């Protein structure tokens, strides 16, 4: 199956959390932080949302930072995705 977002929605896949700190300390499962950076896997077409024209600024493959509690989590074919509105994306990582 494939997720095809509508309007101003974006489908994201979380990147893996770091297993070790910069100083070399190995983190246990409970000490790992929730991943902040996600990869864009699908982008909706934009269009008229709530009476306003929405232009999509992200593309498939972009790495982005989102709000911690934004979006809806979806599990499809054993993979976990998050569907968010474009305005829940805080920044593009370059």
Description:
The chain is an all-beta fold and 94 residues long. Helices cover 0% and strands 43% of the residues. It is built from no helices and eight strands. A six-stranded antiparallel sheet has the order 6-7-1-2-5-8, with no helix packed on it. Strands 3-4 form a two-stranded antiparallel sheet. A hairpin with a 2-residue loop joins strand 3 and strand 4 (52-54). The relative contact order is 0.30.
Mean pLDDT: 85
- Termini distance? 30 Å
Q: How would you characterize the largest beta sheet?
A: 6 strands, antiparallel
Order of helices and strands: EEEEEEEE
Keywords:
single chain; 94 residues; mainly beta; two-stranded antiparallel sheet
SSE topology:
Layout (H helix, E strand, L loop, with lengths): L8 E6 L22 E7 L3 E3 L2 E3 L8 E4 L5 E5 L2 E7 L3 E5 L1
Antiparallel strand pairs: 1-2, 1-7, 2-5, 3-4, 5-8, 6-7
């Amino acid at each position: 199956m494939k997720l095809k977002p509508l309007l101003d929605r974006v489908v994201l896949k979380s990147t893996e959390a770091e297993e070790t700190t910069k100083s070399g300390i190995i983190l246990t499962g409970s000490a790992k932080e929730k991943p902040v950076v996600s990869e864009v896997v699908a982008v909706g077409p934009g269009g008229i949302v709530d009476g306003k024209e929405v232009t999509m600024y992200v593309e498939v493959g972009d790495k982005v930072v989102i709000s911690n509690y934004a979006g809806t989590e979806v599990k499809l074919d054993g993979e976990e995705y998050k569907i968010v509105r474009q305005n829940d994306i805080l920044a593009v990582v370059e």
